[in-house]
Write a structure and sequence with these properties.
about 240 residues; alpha/beta; two-stranded antiparallel ribbon; about 20% strand; binds adenine
Length: about 240
């Protein structure tokens, strides 16, 4: 498979600066992924480079105009022959989770459209849904409203890119972390609590089983802890 590519389109490209830090920066330096950031405003017309307008039907706030978005999306799509996944970030989208992170980590080209204000004219979704070269997904990172999709794109990219083979130094850590641990009935469990040295800290001791050296007991204790934590989260 060719190198996966991720593009983010935003009116605030500076917001995406963390993409060149830490693990995501290293993944690019090591040639494992390409990440591009595109300034939507470059594709707007007129002296004011306006990207929004008042909503049809009335109501508060502004809606992002379709034409600059289509130009920007077509421009980043033209840069590769791959099939494109267009992710439109919106609180009205499908809730992002680890399964969706895995899915996106296996795609060739994912384009993130970061809307601001009251969102992007819905015809952008409709227009690209009609185009067989695109799969359009509306994604939300949770039931709360952000000022724009940029923080959502960062969160999604961080969780997706670490799943790409070669990105994590120790891929075994993927097997043991929250949301990839499976319980007896194959349900998703969160991770067990972790401890490091010293064995006693401010009067608190590390659970004795972890110092026992008995791998069977340790594995059983961790599985119980994962199950208990998961149950508590659902209360
Ligand atoms: N844009 C505004 N709020 C959002 C959310 N919760 N998820 C994704 N994009 C958003």
């Amino acid at each position: 498979m060719s190198k996966p590519r991720f593009d983010v389109i935003s009116i605030f490209p500076e917001y995406l600066a963390p993409l060149s830090l830490s693990l995501l920066g290293k993944a690019q330096e090591n040639g494992l992924v390409d990440i591009g950031v595109t300034d939507l405003r470059v594709f707007a017309d007129g002296a004011h480079k306006s990207v929004d307008d008042t909503p049809y039907g009335g109501g508060a706030g502004m809606v992002m105009s379709p034409e600059p978005w289509a130009r920007a999306i077509d421009s980043v799509a033209e840069q590769t022959d791959a099939h494109h996944d267009l992710v439109i970030l919106t609180p009205a989208g499908k809730k992002f989770d680890q399964a969706l992170a895995y899915e996106l980590s296996q795609r060739d080209h994912v384009i993130f459209a970061c809307g601001r204000y009251e969102g992007i004219d819905y015809r952008i979704t409709e227009h690209y849904r009609e185009n067989p070269e695109f799969a359009v997904r509306e994604i939300s990172i949770g039931d709360y409203v952000l000022n724009g999709g940029e923080v959502a794109a960062l969160a999604i990219l961080e969780s997706v890119i670490r799943l790409i083979p070669g990105v994590l130094g120790n891929p075994a850590s993927l097997d043991e972390e929250s949301h990839s641990i499976k319980g007896e009935n194959d349900e998703q469990l969160v991770e067990y609590p972790s401890y490091t040295k010293p064995a006693e800290w401010r009067g608190l001791e590390v659970p004795a089983v972890l110092l026992s050296g008995n791998h069977g007991d340790i594995a059983r204790w961790r599985a119980e802890q994962s199950a208990t934590r998961t149950r508590k989260l659902k209360e």
